[in-house]
Specification:
2 helices; 19 strands; nine-stranded antiparallel β-sheet; seven-stranded antiparallel β-sheet; Jelly Rolls; single chain; mainly beta
Length: about 270
């Protein structure tokens, strides 16, 4: 039922975002076209030094079965910026730090006033308890940003050239796949239980007894934690790239920090 409720909520948000915005066609339309054109021009952080030319865009893979897309083509519907109102019918944040260019969410190196202060884009929905989040990202040289899932912060950056992690499959100046999995985990001692295990509390001679697969276990060895696990191109992310403790409730957010980072194919599936 949680998956059905989440999908209905997201469907309602995106349905509103699909309504055509007819007002402001003249001057406003030209303004948005200029913003989009500007976003496709490499920023200063993308060129110079030893930065290679950005590769031409390959076609984005389709949203996977069972997943829900979190980005709308050409607009930021379903997202809030900082502490402002929900963004609807616009392709960029007021300061132009975040911009939708077709199906790609672009984090500009600086805002329209030339400032590089950290900014954050929040989803208008709360993340479910257990889920898988998938997306592709492309980082300019030495660029860095973060994905926040219910307060837990996960690094998304130009990992190799920043000497943060030597991924074997990382593609500089090209699209990389990131998968984030958040789920409750039950452990008995050092053992992590699976769906095949049967953990239950029963009464024996009027006293509660904890049983695991028919065997008595010490109830003090049972623990329940929320695990956050991320992979880049199938390679696990170092634990030092995680920050903060995951909360029971909270949105998804994307943090602009330094340099140009792009996201596409942002999608979620409740487990």
């Amino acid at each position: 039922m949680r998956l059905q409720s989440l999908c209905q909520c997201l469907y309602g948000i995106f349905l509103v975002g699909m309504l055509p915005t007819l007002a402001g066609c003249g001057k406003e339309e030209r303004k948005e076209q200029e913003l989009i054109a500007k976003s496709t021009t490499p920023a200063k952080g993308d060129v110079g030094r030893t930065t290679p030319t950005r590769r031409p865009d390959s076609a984005a893979p389709p949203i996977e079965p069972g997943f829900t897309a979190l980005l709308r083509t050409g607009e930021l519907a379903g997202w809030y910026y900082e502490k402002g109102k929900e963004l609807r019918g616009v392709s960029a944040t007021p300061d132009q730090r975040f911009l939708i260019n077709n199906d790609v969410l672009v984090i500009a190196p600086k805002d329209k006033n030339g400032k590089e202060t950290d900014k954050e884009l929040y989803s208008s929905f709360q993340l479910p308890r257990d889920f898988v989040l998938k997306f592709q990202f492309r980082a300019a040289q030495e660029a860095v940003s973060e994905i926040h899932v219910r307060n837990a912060r996960i690094l998304v950056s130009d990992f190799v050239r920043r000497n943060e992690q030597k991924f074997k499959k990382f593609r500089n100046d090209d699209w990389n796949d990131m998968e984030v999995r958040v789920n409750l985990v039950v452990r008995v001692g050092n053992r992590t239980l699976t769906k095949k295990d049967n953990l239950e509390a029963v009464f024996e001679n009027g006293k509660p007894v904890t049983m695991l697969n028919g065997q008595k276990v010490d109830p003090t060895t049972v623990s329940v934690i929320t695990r956050v696990h991320a992979e880049c191109n199938g390679e696990p992310l170092d634990r030092r790239h995680y920050r903060g403790r995951v909360r029971s409730r909270g949105p998804l957010s994307i943090r602009a920090m330094s340099g140009r980072v792009e996201f596409r194919n942002l999608q979620i599936k409740e487990l």
